[in-house]
Amino acid sequence: MSSQPPHPALLIPGPIEFDDAVLQSMSHYSESHVGPAFVSTFGDTLSMLRKLFQTSHASSQPFVISGSGTLGWDLVAANLAEPGDDVLVLHTGYFADSFADCFETYGSRPTQLKAPIGSRPQLPEIEKALKEKKYKLLTVTHVDTSTGVLSELKGLSELVRRVSPETLLIVDGVCSVGSEEIEFDKWQLDGVITASQKGIGCPAGLSISMFSGRAIETFKNRKTPPGSYFASMKNWLPIMQNYEAKKPSYFATPSPQLIHALNTSLTQILSKPLSERFAIHREASQKVKKAVTDLGLRQLASDSADQANGMTAIYLPENVKVPELLPNLFKKGVVFAGGLHKDIAAKYIRFGHMGVSVTDSNRDDIDRAIKALETGLSEVGYQKA
């Protein structure tokens, strides 16, 4: 049983529910961010991230910086692209627009390759785009939190290496790391950015990323200085290397309590094979998606190959309004999220199912949420045809 005060189950695509031990580690007594005990914890945390991302290359570099997942965009745009560089942004929803905006802020030139809502750009169109222009980077949102669309990385990486091998492949994994399989080395990824509060299961406040040796060399070979101070790899790279080597270092103050929470969460995640964790998320996802279908509802991602395992975006019946349904679910002890995609925000809701809500067999969050959705829809006037 959880020792947390009674509260509605938070089943949005992040922040998610947190394990008791993770929250308790946040209450660690105050300590110096350059003291030996904290330096050791931070160093171990960075090393564990290598296992989570599945990289064993010594040249790969993890970063953990105070901030949200959005800071990951700045790390990429400020350090790996230069003013005037062309960047291909694969668009599967709201967050591709934002990533493209970030690139523009730093002076590079993003081109968005878009797909219909609920789908993703297909490999032949991506190949065509790569052959038409030389792109410094290609970015893909692994799971777009606005649509629940899952992008396939392995085939994409093989395509990029074949058609445009000099292009860096960057993954926005904010809503996928910890709930979707990512094999950093095997799939030859150059960067994956994420955040603490979703599949990793740690409170919000940490920007977490992994970059390949090739990406780090791209940064080192820049012709111009990075356009950011706080997000500059020039400032952060030696800090991360020193911490992992258990050497005190300072550029900007980290959050010791959040690092302790991340350490606890990663320890829990890595206590079992990652394959088992991903399988549990797939099983929970299939259960949710079957329930959605049984209710006569549709997902934004209509093709099963495009459906994320950590969240489900659900179209509402025409006679059901988001402002009516969500408060009803809240009264039943369940919190879902409203729509985020600007073109259809009023037409759908989002159900997050990742982390302890699916991996802890003692929790009934998912079953309660499915039941609440069924009865909640009925109470606001929906009847399955």
Automatic annotation (TrEMBL):
Q: Name one GO molecular function term.
A: L-serine-pyruvate transaminase activity
- BP GO annotations: glycine biosynthetic process, by transamination of glyoxylate
Reported EC number(s) for this entry are: 2.6.1.44
**Binding residue positions for substrate:** R350
InterPro entries membership: Aminotrans_V_dom, PyrdxlP-dep_Trfase, PyrdxlP-dep_Trfase_major, PyrdxlP-dep_Trfase_small, SP_NH2Trfase/AEP_transaminase
Q: Which GO terms describe its cellular component?
A: peroxisome
Q: Which domain of life is it from?
A: Eukaryota
PTM N6-(pyridoxal phosphate)lysine: list the residues: K198
For this UniProt record, give its keywords in alphabetical order, as a comma-separated list: Aminotransferase, Pyridoxal phosphate, Transferase
Please verify whether the record's keywords include Transferase.
yes
The signal peptide, as residue positions, is none
In this chain the Aminotransferase class V domain maps to: 33-341
Cofactor(s), names only, from the UniProt record: pyridoxal 5'-phosphate
Does the keyword section mention Transferase? yes
Q: Which SUPFAM superfamilies match?
A: PLP-dependent transferases (SSF53383)
What family does the entry list? Belongs to the class-V pyridoxal-phosphate-dependent aminotransferase family.
PANTHER family according to UniProt: ALANINE--GLYOXYLATE AMINOTRANSFERASE 1, AMINOTRANSFERASE CLASS V
Official protein name in the record: alanine--glyoxylate transaminase
Which organism does this sequence originate in?
Answer: Amylocarpus encephaloides
Give the classification, highest ranks: Eukaryota, Fungi, Dikarya, Ascomycota, Pezizomycotina
